[in-house]
Design a protein that fits this description.
about 180 residues; alpha/beta; Rossmann fold; 7-stranded mixed beta sheet; 7 helices; 7 strands; about 35% helix
Length: about 180
């Protein structure tokens, strides 16, 4: 098998997740499972569930990560985020890389995320717009959507790469004080 270059956006996103090893993670829009393959070696007792709307992507992700799935560290589901309705599942960290749902039509997706996050859980959204100007537009829209859907954003992060437009948003649901 020929070693494939890992896209900077994925290695950077996994680094920014600061995996402790015991977390339950959900990746939204896992594609071919590259991030899962980077995360599983960092997990001790933790697990990752990866979802994607594309059956072809899920098949490729399963194949790429068959050893991690056999070890019980990774599971894959061909499902859209809005169809994740199992209230028995909860996740400490939910993340997505270049998933447009959260800055285009965020309400339904963020409602599902709120239900799936464990108490104290965190949402990580990573994007790589084609330009720095595109980044500012995407970031502004994303921050407005998060605020409108009762998420607080304690941090916006950006890649150290000098020519990169990579950025990420760390968000948590605003909990009712009553």
């Amino acid at each position: 098998m020929v070693a494939q270059k890992i896209p900077e956006r994925l290695s950077w996103a996994v680094e920014e997740l600061k995996i402790a090893g015991h977390e339950r993670l959900l990746e939204i829009g896992c594609g071919r499972g590259v991030a899962v393959s980077l995360i599983c070696p960092l997990l001790s007792s933790g697990t990752i569930t990866a979802i994607d709307r594309s059956a072809t992507a899920i098949d490729a992700a399963r194949l790429r990560n068959e050893d991690h799935a056999a070890a019980g560290k990774a599971s894959f589901r061909h499902i859209a985020l809005e169809d994740m309705t199992d209230p028995a599942q909860s996740f400490d960290k939910i993340f997505a890389v270049n998933v447009n749902l959260f800055w285009l039509d965020a309400e339904m997706g963020l409602d599902v995320v709120r239900k799936l996050l464990a108490p104290g859980g965190t949402l990580f959204l990573f994007y790589e717009p084609p330009s720095l100007a595109g980044r500012k537009q995407a970031e502004a829209k994303l921050l407005a959507n998060l605020e409108a859907n009762r998420f607080e954003v304690p941090e916006v992060i950006e890649s150290d790469a000098s020519r990169s437009s990579l950025f990420g948003v760390i968000a948590r649901p605003v909990r009712n004080s009553a």
